[in-house]
């Protein structure tokens, strides 16, 4: 897998959870589980929650995060990580998640 996506800017396309496109940067890639950690350029406030990070995972068999640089847009499962929950030592850990800030969205490399 290519890791040259780290540091690249992306746009998360509006969806049921967000009403407008959001800019983020790819912070880390989990090669084994086909996930990427994105940091929003501006925190997203929804109700009383503030989100700074988003974990995106591939949705389809044969889909790879590295394809983002080829296809330019990819549908991903997204879990929005509250600022207070994010663990820098375990950035891809979503074991705490049970319901809430998650959706499917397209992500585009810019």
Describe the structure.
With 110 residues, this protein is mostly beta strands. The chain has one domain. Helices cover 4% and strands 48% of the residues. It has one helix and six strands. It is globular, with a radius of gyration of 13 Å. The mean pLDDT is 89.
Sheet with most strands: strand arrangement? 1-2-3-4-5-6
Mean pLDDT: 89
Q: How helix-rich are the residues, as a percent range?
A: under 10%
Q: Sum up the overall morphology in one term.
A: globular
- The number of helical runs is 1
| Overall SS class | mainly beta
User: What is the CA-CA span between the terminal residues?
Assistant: 19 Å
Taking pLDDT < 50 over at least 5 consecutive residues as the criterion, the unreliable ranges are none
How many E strands? 6
Radius of gyration based on Cα positions = 13 Å
Taken together, the total number of domains comes to: 1
Strand content: over 45%
- Let me know the largest β-sheet: 6 strands, antiparallel, barrel
What's the SSE pattern?
EEEEHEE
Relevant terms:
110 residues; mainly beta; 6-stranded antiparallel barrel; 1 helix; 48% strand
Fold topology:
Layout (H helix, E strand, L loop, with lengths): L8 E4 L9 E9 L4 E12 L2 E10 L9 H4 L1 E10 L19 E8 L1
Write a brief structural summary.
This protein is mainly beta and 110 residues long.
